[in-house]
Q: What sequence folds into this?
């Protein structure tokens, strides 16, 4: 075993002392073999439930002994009929996982096998923080952040539904922001059941199989808890996930309407009316009133910019009163009445103001250039917008926290008091920009260009400035600490 580990673990569910020294081949407590399936060395437990347990492991048969996730499934009964049915469902579930694992944002199924009358699934290990951890560490998302989250997660869920698969356990802890590329990954498909599995389980009365992966309390809708999951069940769970991201509150901490059973969440989040309606439809208790699948939610999200623009247009029209009948008659006759000014002259065409939604929509349509725009207080936290161009724009006090801004162009932009905390600014162009009092803590500015930028009062504590183009005289005016990686590549040292 090449990896340096402090202990290895026994997977026997009745073992009283599963922890063993790395040199042991058999468990010193129960005598079980410690090398699972003569291949997987268990490093520790990741989770435990009625279905079994999930472990971190290394594959000792592959070069480099890569880390993987081993999920143990065990029948909740010793009845031979239950065991046989569990085996059949396990094989079908493995086939389902193999199918959906073809998506780059779903962990790949690496292996599956039976050992000592227990079933095991082996999946790719995804390194990163899940959204539950992210909210606990950094606080709730903004409305813009949740919208961005939905635009990232819904295509994954749409793919899963297109494969006739229901996830059945969507929640913040099962969505990881992958460290490698900052992409969202939907994990823990131990809850997956395809339509055939659901039928088999429902036609198997009085068996323990219905205990398998019914979801998480508060996130699972009523029909799923009644063992009748549909695609819309995933939509409900995703909607509750959005509520958690917005409020930081678990569904068990939010009261429900005693008449309808609906979560009374709206008092904890200030949202625009169009987006609040989308979220409300996602968490409808009644399946009939809820979005049926991910595609319907995507369509509703795509319509949001239009709805917001329409609302803005209506507001503008209300500030410009309609012409009277006399004005229209005079205008059609070419009469210029001094007492009745020309209506067209007093109602100039207004260009809709760019906002967060319109920028994200245009970016999705391959529009990257937003130079010289007035975008004060813009909120683009958690956005993935590499290569975007904001040169010369006024972005004072804007929020780009945790956003991917790789190769972005902020040349000569006004960025006073802007927030770039934990953002990815690799190779970004920031020359001659005004970053006075900006927050760049823990930001990755590797290879960025900060020539002639105003860095007075800017906070670079914990930031990575390796190979950045910036002078020592500039950084003297900024805030740094021993965790700051300087252009030299050394921490705290120029």
A:
């Amino acid at each position: 075993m090449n990896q340096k580990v402090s202990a290895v673990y026994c997977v026997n569910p009745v073992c009283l002392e599963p922890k063993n020294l790395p040199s042991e081949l058999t468990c010193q407590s129960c005598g079980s073999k410690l090398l699972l399936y003569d291949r997987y060395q268990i490093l520790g437990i990741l989770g435990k439930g009625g279905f079994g347990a999930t472990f971190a492991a290394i594959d000792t048969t592959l070069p480099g002994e890569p880390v993987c996730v081993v999920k143990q499934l065990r029948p909740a009964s010793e009845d031979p009929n239950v065991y046989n049915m569990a085996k059949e469902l396990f094989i079908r579930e493995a086939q389902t996982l193999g199918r959906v694992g073809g998506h780059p944002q779903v962990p790949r199924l690496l292996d599956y096998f039976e050992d000592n009358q227990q079933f095991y699934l082996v999946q790719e290990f995804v390194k990163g923080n899940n959204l539950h951890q992210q909210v606990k560490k950094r606080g709730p998302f903004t409305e813009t952040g949740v919208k961005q989250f939905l635009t990232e997660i819904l295509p994954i869920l749409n793919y899963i539904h297109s494969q006739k698969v229901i996830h059945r356990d969507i929640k913040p802890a099962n969505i990881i922001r992958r460290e490698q590329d900052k992409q969202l990954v939907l994990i823990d498909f131990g809850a997956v059941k395809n339509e055939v599995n659901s039928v088999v389980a429902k036609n198997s009365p009085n068996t323990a199989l219905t205990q398998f992966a019914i979801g998480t309390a508060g996130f699972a809708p009523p029909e799923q808890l009644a063992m009748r999951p549909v695609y819309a069940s995933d939509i409900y769970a995703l909607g509750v996930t959005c509520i958690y991201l917005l409020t930081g509150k678990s569904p068990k901490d939010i009261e429900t309407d005693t008449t309808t059973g609906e979560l009374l969440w709206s008092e904890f989040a200030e949202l625009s009316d169009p987006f609040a309606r989308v979220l409300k439809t996602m968490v409808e208790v009644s399946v009939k009133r809820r979005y049926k699948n991910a595609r319907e939610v995507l369509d509703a999200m795509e319509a949001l910019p239009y709805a917001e623009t329409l609302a803005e247009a209506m507001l503008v029209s209300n500030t410009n009163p309609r012409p009277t009948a006399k004005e229209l008659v005079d205008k059609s006759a070419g009469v210029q009445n001094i007492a009745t000014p020309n209506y067209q002259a007093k109602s100039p065409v207004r260009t809709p103001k760019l906002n967060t939604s319109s920028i994200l929509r245009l970016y999705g349509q391959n529009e990257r250039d937003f130079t010289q725009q007035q975008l004060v207080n813009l909120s683009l936290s958690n956005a993935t917008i590499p290569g975007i161009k904001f040169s010369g724009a006024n972005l004072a006090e804007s929020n780009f926290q945790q956003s991917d801004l790789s190769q972005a162009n902020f040349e000569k932009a006004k960025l006073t008091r802007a927030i770039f905390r934990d953002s990815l600014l690799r190779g970004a162009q920031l020359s001659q920009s005004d970053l006075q009092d900006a927050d760049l803590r823990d930001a990755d500015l590797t290879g960025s260009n900060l020539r002639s930028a105003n860095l007075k009062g800017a906070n670079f504590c914990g930031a990575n400035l390796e190979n950045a183009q910036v002078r020592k005289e500039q950084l003297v005016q900024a805030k740094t600490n021993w965790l700051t990686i300087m252009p030299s590549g050394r921490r705290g040292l120029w």
